[in-house]
Amino acid sequence: MGNSLLYATLGTLFTFLMTSAGAAVVFFFKGKPSENMTRSFMGFAAGVMIAASVWSLLIPAIDAEEAAGGIGWIPAAGGFLIGVAFLLLLDNIIPHLHRSSNEVEGPKTSLKRTTLLVLAVTLHNIPEGMAVGLAFAMGAQDGNFAPAIALAIGMGIQNFPEGAAMSLPLRHEGNSAFKSFFIGSMTGIVEPIFGISVVLLANVIEPFMPWLLSFAAGAMIYVTVEELIPEATSGEHSHAGTLGVMLGFVIMMVLDVALG
């Protein structure tokens, strides 16, 4: 518990700090990011999350279940679908607004646009934090933290452009640089909260680890397909977003295979 909690804390704080570092770009650039830049950012994040879902979550879930004498695909498929259902539920009960849309999703609300944007980004950071925490909890079981470290690095790398993609539009809409930075940064605070919480519950959730790993994968893929890929490929010229997906996928795959 001690090592896994320490590593999970450091890992999720790293992902949070990378979000903050990306949001800090607002102090150096005042203009709205170009469409191609935004597409590249979102595509890169999507590619990282797809690769992480497969190599860091689903494959370990299958291996863990088979090592315990079970049928690997059952928790992989079942947990995945439950993760999708969970994010779909949150999408329907929490009002939020995607960056590329002016139409509020979820219940009707009088909340401001900025608040709705923050809620949307915060929603998809929850499964990222859970994924990192679960990976470190899994590492504590087999004594190998390398895959979890690879996942934390990958999540951190993709959080940098996400932080920038959050703070720069807020600045362009008239918010102060500090307010834009603070809001962009705080969207990532749920990652250490959920990551550390998962590790603290490791003894309780250990028998369900394959299901929970797959749950995080399903939630992340839902976010990727629902939000990131549409934003990356919107408009007439979507090559920047498509190439961003490919680059993010390759980097996360290499990180996981090389460090795992």
Topology:
Elements: H1 2-23, H2 35-67, H3 73-93, H4 113-142, H5 146-172, H6 177-186, H7 190-200, H8 202-205, H9 209-233, H10 239-259
Helix pairs in contact: 1-4, 1-5, 1-6, 1-7, 2-3, 2-5, 2-9, 2-10, 3-9, 4-5, 4-7, 4-9, 5-6, 5-10, 9-10
What do these coordinates show?
The structure is a single chain. This protein is an all-alpha fold. It has one domain (2-26, 40-259). Helices cover 78% and strands 0% of the residues. The protein contains 10 helices and no strands. It has helices spanning 2-23, 35-67, 73-93, 113-142, 146-172, 177-186, 190-200, 202-205, 209-233, 239-259. The longest helix has 33 residues, at 35-67. 54% of the residues are buried.
Task: Report a brief summary of the structure.
The chain is an all-alpha fold and 260 residues long. 78% of the residues lie in helices and 0% in strands. The model has no long low-confidence stretch (mean pLDDT 86).
Extended strand count: 0
**β-sheet strand percentage:** under 5%
The domain tally reads: 1
Span of the ends, CA to CA: 21 Å
Ranges where pLDDT stays below 50 over 5 or more residues in a row are none
Average per-residue pLDDT, rounded, comes to 86
H-E order: HHHHHHHHHH
Rg over CA atoms, rounded to whole Å, is: 18 Å
